[in-house]
Every structure is written in structure tokens, then in C-alpha cells.
Extracellular solute-binding protein
Amino acid sequence: MRRRSRVLRLALAACLLALAALTGGCAGGDAHRTVVVLGPWTGPEGAAFEDALARLSHHSGHHYVYKGTRSLRETLVAQLEAGAPPDVAILNSIGELTEYAADGKLEPLSPQAAERGYPPWSPTLTLDGRHRTYWVPLRVNLKSVVWSKRATGTKAPDWCVGMAAQATSGWPGTDWIEDILLHQAGPDTYTRWATGRLDWKHDPAVRRAFTTWSEILGPRSPKSVERSLTMSFEGTPDPEHPNAPKRGLLGGSLPGCTHEHQGSFIRSLYPGAMADNTLRVEPAARFLHGRAAYKDTYEVSGDMAAVLTDNPAAQDLVTLLTSEDGRKTWSRSTDAHLRPFFPDATDPRPDDPTGRAVASYLTHDADTLCFDASDVMPPVLRDAFYRAVLTYFQDPRTGTLDTLLGQLETVRSQIAGTPSGRSGRVHAPDDICASPGG
């Protein structure tokens, strides 16, 4: 693997992060003992993670510098092009991680760091004839759930939909379609689709997932559609307190809506509801009206740590963060509604009823967990999927769907025939579905 001056790398990384409008200054300190971490958490989540790193640094003797950004992919690509990557990057895309590994940008994890590489979050890759682990989950989330206000009782859902998410607008819709396909077609078909071995245009499972989503949402006025396309999945701030954090779609951003299909991380927007237990969380399969042949399968996502330099302290940090002490330290550093979920039943568990329910599905109540399909796909196909979902949400006619599925199949076919990486085409790993519990 490549060798580089750690002092130069730290200086370049700090300057590049400053240019990318990230917080903080130069890392400083002994380059052999300093670890630069790039991750997706900002605001209170980022502050909690920084606090956990500060606590862990007292035990390890290393200095940890965390830089959080909402433009994670763009920032990391810029750093890699400048030859100044962070020591550790925290990403949620297996597709991106696979490409980085194939291009020689990732270091294989040490046996100690790889020990808690639980499937389906941490599949092994075969590169240069060797099977190795290149990332492990730090935090995981459950995607196959629906949130609702307890006061609505058994009222028919009025769906809250916010599709905007900066450069990744559309993913709340792809989550829906992935979840539906998993429940209807099962883990085997889902895996072949996510890993690029299923024809988008001609396989009935893909078309059925799109049309089922449209049927569940029901008729929507042009005004409602436009509002959902421009509304952030996080909602809007309270107009009486514009500088306050966003309040979520169920928190008043979309008045009148009662149900939200969203991952377990969304509870961070509802601290009051988590405290007084006024939100209900249910498996999404219950809302498919008897069309879920695989109701005990669940889609999951994760924030995975990968090492990008030869700094041995980076491997040590990944080992520490995934240890029992590391996870307890992180849990103690954050408020209840921000507390992370972990993939093992022996790890710290949230102490609120809703959090415990989510943790149970992640660790033992589900039959099978499958990793987020769009996050398994190569980035170019994932981004095309996002755009297609936005178009279909706006115009769900059969002709529109025919065109979109044809375009997506063209992208998939082109990727399948294009070599990439130092060792030729490296496909996403097949083991993206597994039993829960580590």
C-alpha cells in the first residue's frame, strides 16, 4: 500500500477541510498520534460524536480530530484527488466503499478492527485473490418502519412525504420502493437487484414495487406533489423560532399528515415525542395491505468506518469505536433521541420504549436484514435511481414508468460492461442480507 508523509497529509487535510467550509482548524500534535476522521454528522449529532472521541482520547493517548459535513462524498473525493485523505472516513454507501477499495484507496482492516464486521453491514470483498474486510458499522438504522402520531388511532394514513435532500434528493422515495420490493419479492430477488444482476425494465418485481408505491400514496394534487418535491425530509424550522432545529414532517412541517415512512434515525427530529412516547413506530409491511409475502424481512442502513491511510492509530480507533467501551461512551455522550443504534444485542440499547422496539428488530425480532439497495448500487446507478423516483412521483403514468425503467436498465447494463478498479470490475458483495444479531 501507498506510503506518504503523515505531517504533509494532516496539513493538507486540514486546509482542504477549511476550504470545504467545515468547522475547526489544523490538527496539530504528533502526526503519529493524530487521527483525522471525516463523517456525516453535524449539529448536535456531530457534537455528541466529538464528545465521545474526546473521552476516548483520554484512554488511548491519541488525538482525534473530527470533521462533519453534509457534503460527504464531494469532500472525500476532493481530498482523495489532493492526495490528502482523512485517516478514517464514515460512509453509508457500500457502493462507494466498494469502488474506493477497488481503486486501492482503502486499507484492509486489521483483524482486531474487523472483528465486529457484522453482516449485512460489513460484507467481505475479494481483491487480488484475497478475502478481506474493509469497513465495519459504527452506527446502524432500521429503514422498514412507519412512524405515526398515536392520537390518529386506526385512521387511514395521510402520508407525510418530503423528497428534498440537497444533492441526494429522491432517496426517501427509493427507500419506499426498496422496502416494498424486499417485502414482496424476498431477499434473493432483492439481492440480485441491488447488486446489478436483475433487469430493471423486464423483471416484474421492479415494476410492481414502483406501482405499489404509487397505489399506497394514492391520488395527490399538483400542489401536494410540488410541496413534497421541494420539502426537505427533515421538514422546516418552527416559523416562530426560525433558528431552531428542523421539526420533522410529523412535527408540523406538513400540517394534516399522519404517517411517515422513514428510517429510525428520524427520531432525532422528535425529542419531545420520544420523551413522552406520543409517536408510534410499526413495521412497514403492515401498510402493504396483505401484499407482503416476506413481512419479517427488514431493510437497514449503516454508517461504516473505513481506513484510508497507513496510520496505525486509525486502525486502533476503529477497533475502539466498535468495542463495548467505545459504544457505551458514545451512548453516554448523547441525548436519548440522538442515541445511536448498534448491530449487536449485547451493545448499549436505548432506554425509551420506541428506541427499544427499533433495537429489537435490529438484533433479534426480524428473520432477515437486508442492506439499503440504493446504497449497495454503484453511485452512478444510485443517482439515476434517485432522479427516476422524483420523476415518477411527479408523473406516475405507465408510459413514464416504462421510459424510466428503460433508462435505468441502460445505466445498469453499461456499468456491468465497464471495467473499473485496479483489478478490473469489482462487483458489490452478494452477502447484503443476513440474520440479525451479529
Notes: The longest strand covers residues 297-307. The two ends are 30 Å apart (CA to CA). Residues 1-29 have pLDDT under 50 and may be disordered.
